[in-house]
Amino acid sequence: MKAKILCLILVLCLCLSVMAGCAEEKVDPPAESEAVAETPAEEAAPEEEAAPEEEPVPEEVVVKDGNPNEVEEFPVELPITTNGESFEVWMGMSPAALGYINDYSEENLVWKELEKRTGVNIEFDLYHPDQTSTLWSLMQAGGEYSDVLAGQLTYTGGNDQAVEDGVYLELSELAQEYAPNYWAQLTCNDELYDSVTTDNGNLVHLATFYNTYRGPDQGLVIRGDWLDELGMEVPKTVDQLHDALVGFKNELGAEAAMWIPTSCYYQEGSILTAFGGAFNNSGLYNDNGEIKMCAIQDNFKEYLQLLNQWYEEGIIWKDFPTYGAQQMFRNTSMIAAGDTGFFRSEVSEMATFARITEDPDAYFVAVADPVLNEGDVLHMGRNNPGYLKAANWIITTSCEHPEIVLQFCDYCYTDEGSLLCNYGIEGETFEYDEDGNPQLTDVVMNNEIYDYRVAILMYVVDVGPYVLDSARGTNNYTEHMHEASEIWISTPTDEAYAIPSKAVLTADEQTEQTNIFADINTYLSENLVKFVTGDQSFDEWDNYVATIESMNMARCIELSQIALDRYLEAQ
Question: On the CB side of 103, how many CA atoms lie within 13 Å of its CA?
Fold first, then answer.
């Protein structure tokens, strides 16, 4: 038996050898006469088409779960250029600062110094932020774009569509070559990378991000000293807030105890969420898998009725409709005069507002988003803590030298560049304390002309391509200011109404929805204020809802429902 098996093995080996030899054997081509005989002259064999070149597959981006400010720094050789290249930045500017500015790149110390160090010239095209939507629409319609776009802009169809349309530059490969510091910091943290890149993984932004993991830096604030005088605690419910505001007006003489923006709701920090509302830019929200529009729901009506009641009681500033679309409160004269004590603010301004009241006991405290009943859980809450401050600068395809812009920005992400952007010039706008930490001087902190918010815009970089030091300007922070970020995210939130960020509309869907919403939003802006001021009776509510429904609102909802269903099916 063993002998038979051995024989079989030998035969098998022999067969494999022969087959291998056949595979390696070269076959001579047929003689020319044979080839002609097989292929007639009038039917020459067609040439074989060359295989199409395959597009190179981009390397997969490796993103880590670390601290973006602990990566190894890449040196940046200065100056970046000696040829005098320049680029234009289209940017909205606080109206409080616009009146002081003629040439921003010359009047802001940091931008002027950056030009000197890098050899790159910057031209700022500044505009009033109330005009953002109009000017941006005109720019898109005209098709002529600035080199760099700064701010939170909404491109028709989204940022991925802007890349596909050849308007925004996709920066991933360029950043790796010309902005290695930014790329290393961005890809060091998966949460930061996801928050800056698009749903399709495109990188179009040069972001401002913090050097520490932190919560929001703006929200609702209230006069803490007034609460003390009235013997009240910081309000947690809507009723408690109402009682405090009534006390501010009737007992302390505040003529505008509460200030609200012309939109009648705050983007960050709101009473609306207490009513189960989820009003955002689109007004749409996800109720257990069903897309709904907040502005026509009964709970939104209840919210507007509350504001109307408070307006009639005189605790809401009577002239709020005339203030403009700015989200931030800027009427410092009213604060200084003690006419108002509850509004939305940045934490950095809480000390400034207390100082300008000329009341030595004045102080502001943060207020968490109030609820109807203590223990309630909100369905739409605040931004979670993170590194990202703002996804800000966008380089367009109109930019002649994007590599120069990226190198310029990359310097701002170095330790040296970030120090300059955060604190300006040593001896002028900052000094080192005894522990070696930079501290802003009174030129910024207690300027005789500008309040702190304007001084930041005039002397250092507010939002732009750099790493923002979370400790900047905190040397005069009170205990209440240090606690503010944690307070603003303290109200329990289950995010049940949130639409997943990956449930995106296609470009065509987005365009269609945007076009429909244009008319709806115009109607909303005209009518919400009327409900609050009483110029329009709530007896007209059904007509108001019917009008919105007649403006093809159902299609807007349907488009977002399609996107949500598509996302859920893919899970």
Answer: 6
Residue at 106: amino acid letter: E
Q: How far is CA 405 from CA 69, 120, 178, 179, 412, in A?
A: 22, 8, 9, 9, 11
* Tokens, residue 164: 């596909």
pLDDT digits (tens, 9 = 90+) for 264-281: 765 555 788 888 776 555
d(CA 152, CA 131): 13
Tokens of 3: 């002998």
**pLDDT-flagged residues of the chain (< 50):** 1-48, 51, 55-58, 325, 327
Dist. CA 389–CA 212, nearest whole Å: 11
Q: How far apart are CA 503 and CA 564, in angstroms?
A: 5
Helical packing angle, 415-423 and 402-412, nearest 10° = 80
Residue with tokens 């670390």: 66
* Rg of the chain, C-alpha, whole Å: 31
Tokens found for residue 302: 């209840």
Query: What's this model's pTM, rounded to 2 decimal places?
Result: 0.73
Do residues 284 and 557 touch, judged by C-beta distance below 8 A? yes
Residue 33, both tokens:
């006469």
Residues in the chain, overall count: 571
Please choose, from the candidates 449, 466, 468, the residue with its C-alpha nearest in 3D space to the C-alpha of residue 107: 449
520 in Cβ contact with 557 (< 8 Å): no
Tokens of 108: 């802001």
Q: What are phi and psi of 90, to 5 degrees?
A: -95, 115
* Sign of the C-alpha dihedral computed for residues 19, 23, 29 and 34 taken in this order: positive
- Confirm if 450 and 193 have CB atoms less than 8 A apart: no
Looking at residue 264, its pLDDT comes to 75
How do 148-150 and 86-92 pair as beta strands? parallel
- State the Cα–Cα distance between residues 169 and 175, nearest whole angstrom: 11
In percent, the amount of the chain with pLDDT more than 70 equals: 85
Asked if residues 415 and 182 have their Cβ atoms less than 8 Å apart, the reply is no
* Burial (CB count <10 Å: 0-12, 13-18, 19+), residue 367: buried
Whole-angstrom CA distances from 201 to 175, 182, 516 are: 14, 16, 28
The predicted structure's pLDDT at residue 536: 96
Predicted pLDDT of residue 31: 40
Q: Is 454 exposed, middle or buried (0-12, 13-18, 19+ CB in 10 A)?
A: buried
Helices 553-570 and 507-533 pack at an angle, to 10 degrees, of 130
Give 110-155 pLDDT, tens digit per residue.
999 999 999 999 999 999 987 888 899 899 989 999 999 998 888 8
Tokens of 261: 């923006």
Note every long-range contact of 213-216, with CB atoms under 8 Å and residues 24 or more positions apart, other chains counting: 213/67, 213/385, 213/386, 213/387, 214/385, 214/386, 214/387, 214/470, 214/485, 215/383, 215/384, 215/385, 215/485, 215/486, 215/488, 215/489, 216/268, 216/382, 216/383, 216/485, 216/488, 216/489
